[in-house]
Specification:
The chain is α/β, with parallel strands linked by helices. The chain folds into 2 domains: 162 residues, P-loop containing nucleotide triphosphate hydrolases (Rossmann fold), CATH 3.40.50.300; 152 residues, no CATH class. The protein has 16 helices and 5 strands. A 5-stranded parallel β-sheet has the order 2-3-4-1-5, with helices on both faces. The chain is elongated and about 75 Å long. The termini are far apart. The structure holds zinc ion (ZN). Zinc ion binds next to helix 4.
Length: 321
């Protein structure tokens, strides 16, 4: 499991591994950068490293009962606080302190994780501050923060800030491929978002999967002699009822033609297929026309009219070929 973090978070891993080795883990660690989901995973991993009952020191197994309970939020000495609505309230911090002052159940150490710690109300933050200054026992805090600028400076001065790197595209692709996700789907999810949590959500989303299936069929028809633009358009119309969706589709189509021009690392069948059918110049032309369609839509043109206009342009283009 370390190897995963060593690969995706080399700097943070090194910092944490060093403090674990010297048995000097800070009593308050603020994780910043990345999404909260990854921050939580990393925080739980560190806690597992401290509590895992398997033999290898500071390398948690991930499988023993302790590791599993930490993961599934059923370990009595590992507490999580999440925002109640849009904020973390003073009462939640007080409740947490109350639970922590009860004697530790199984180990001599206790851990608590504040998910979205920047969402603490000022009262909650002050309450936590006192607790950070005068802990009642052997407690380690993890503050998971997406926006460090929103955290009180007095709190920042009392925590060790560990910066996580956002995942790069290559890592995201690798992780998802290993999970058996279709490469074309990952390719398109990447075209819509650079945020790993969002990409993960998209590739598992039924509507997105359906959209991509329709999009692939559309592109095939569009570029085939047999169907052509006006027939292909029919398959796309139902997705063009909302502006936001229409803009996303344009983004996906641009990504398709960019995939035709630049090979990159992706193995996307539709791009490989189009590479046989289109010249580079034609692919560039498609992108230009799509960007014009995007401008029309952003300029508040009626979606259906804009879509038809685009396909009529394509018709003109194909008769000139
Ligand atoms: Zn374990």
């Amino acid at each position: 499991m370390w190897s995963k973090w060593e690969q995706t978070q080399p700097i943070a891993s090194r910092i944490i591994a060093n403090s674990l080795k010297r048995n000097r883990l800070s009593h308050a660690i603020l994780l910043q950068g990345q999404t909260v989901a990854v921050q939580l995973e990393f925080a739980l991993f560190i806690i597992q490293a401290k509590l895992c009952t398997s033999e290898s020191h500071s390398r948690p197994c991930g499988y023993c009962a302790t590791c599993q309970r930490i993961l599934h939020n059923t370990h009595p000495d590992v507490l999580r606080i999440e925002p109640d609505g849009s904020t973390i309230k003073k009462e939640q911090i007080q409740q947490l302190q109350h639970e922590l002052t009860q004697t530790s159940f199984e180990t001599e150490q206790q851990f608590y994780v504040l998910i979205g710690a920047e969402l603490m109300t000022p009262q909650a933050a002050n309450s936590l501050l006192k607790f950070l200054e005068e802990p009642t026992g052997n407690q380690t805090a993890f503050l998971l923060v997406e926006n460090q600028a929103k955290v009180l400076p007095t709190i920042l001065s009392r925590v060790q800030i560990v910066q996580l790197l956002p995942p790069d595209q290559k890592q995201r692709r690798q992780v998802l491929l290993q999970q058996g996700i279709d490469e074309t789907l990952i390719f398109y999810a990447n075209a819509l978002s650079s945020e790993y949590a969002k990409i993960k959500q998209l590739v598992h989303d039924n509507e997105f999967q359906q959209l991509i299936a329709d999009l692939l069929k559309y592109v095939e028809q569009l570029e085939s002699e047999q169907y052509g633009p006006l027939i292909a358009q029919i398959g796309l119309e139902k997705w063009f009822s909302k502006r936001q969706r229409a803009l996303e589709i344009i983004q996906l189509l641009v990504a398709t033609y960019e995939g035709v021009i630049h090979h990159g690392e992706w193995k996307v069948t539709i791009c490989e297929q189009l590479r046989e059918q289109l010249t580079r110049h034609q692919a560039q032309q498609r992108i230009q026309q799509l960007l014009q369609l995007e401008r029309n839509i952003r300029g508040n043109a009626l979606l259906s009219l804009a879509l038809t206009g685009y396909h009529l342009e394509l018709m003109k283009g194909s008769s000139k070929r």
